[in-house]
Amino acid sequence: MPETLSGRQIVVAGGTGGLGSVCVRSLAEEGARVIFGYKSNETRAESLREFGTPVQADLADAEARTRLLDAAPALYGLAVYTGVPARVSDPARMEDALLESHLVNYAGPILLAREAAARMRKSGTRGAIVLVSTMQAAALFAGSTAYAGAKAALLHTAKILAKECRGPEEVRVNVVCPGVNRAGMAEPSIASGKYDRFLNEGIVSRFGRAEDVARAVRFFLEPDGYVTGQVITVDGGLTL
Hints:
Elements: E1 9-13, H1 20-29, E2 33-38, H2 42-47, E3 53-56, H3 62-70, E4 75-80, H4 94-123, E5 128-132, H5 135-138, H6 145-164, E6 172-178, H7 187-192, H8 196-200, H9 210-220, E7 231-234
Parallel strand pairs: 1-2, 1-4, 2-3, 4-5, 5-6, 6-7
């Protein structure tokens, strides 16, 4: 049976978003000591204060990443939900979108994860890191160049970090790739009817929920876990 996360310090970056906020609540309800980062929406962060400690942190800023991790001196786990959709309809905007996506969807999360892993190993903590990517990093979707490219790099680099963190002071590093969810960045696409055909053709039985992603993240945070360097695509079979 899974061990409890009660009393363990877990940082959730992007913890006020549609997917991240459900993770924050579920971890807190299990008794974890949650520290959650948010970029700018202080009102939303305050609404979640009963579930953990909010820390303003833009992962593109090195000082902010340090501040977020400093808030968890006994760090056990890290879940990184941060990201931007990087949708581009005008080809003239592709360069700007690529650069922003690289920073927000890849560089910031990876740098945070590397620093978290270094802290865990230094303290002798056999911890766990979960990076949230996307089904678009695991399968090919036309029009997703700016978004999926950075998220695919995130997925690949997470495996490298997992390999670097093997051994007696192991820190497990895994990736969750959400599909089409009724929370978070996919909501506008669902509202537009973009993915309706997957329901109409019986490819998926329903669209995803934030709880589906949170359960996968929780699996990778398991204290006695024996899985590292792996990817779970939580999409109801859509990418099949």
